[in-house]
Amino acid sequence: MSKCADASIRLKFNSEKQLDALLVALMPEIETFLTHRSTVKLLKERCCLILTVTAEDIIALRATLNAYLYWVHSSLKVIGVLENS
Asked: What's the rounded Cα separation, in Å, for the pair 16 and 83?
């Protein structure tokens, strides 16, 4: 893949437990995200998640970022519901 666009996003969490639960939720997506136009790396650094996307073009970058940020948002809503029950 020839690199034309990349982005890194650092998301800070209130607790390491919440971040660990999010990483467990995202692992199936990392393992099965099938595209040749972008690659994704997740890195845990204390209470931060660093999401790095490298893509062939800006369209693939935007699509991949949108997908992962949506999954993060949805997972955090579910984690919040489970923590409050």
From this structure: 14
Q: Are 38 and 61 in contact (CB under 8 A)?
A: yes
Cα-Cα-Cα-Cα torsion 5, 35, 24, 75, nearest 10 degrees, comes to 80
- Two tokens at 50? 């660093």
Taking the CB of residue 21, how many other CB atoms lie within 10 A of it? 18
Cross-strand bridge partners of residue 48: 12, 45
Mean pLDDT, all residues of the chain: 89
Specify whether domain 5-84 bears CATH 3.30.310.50.
yes
pTM for the full model? Answer: 0.84
Question: Any idea where the domains of the chain sit in the sequence?
Answer: 5-84
The alpha-helical segments, DSSP class H, found in 1-85 are 16-32, 58-84
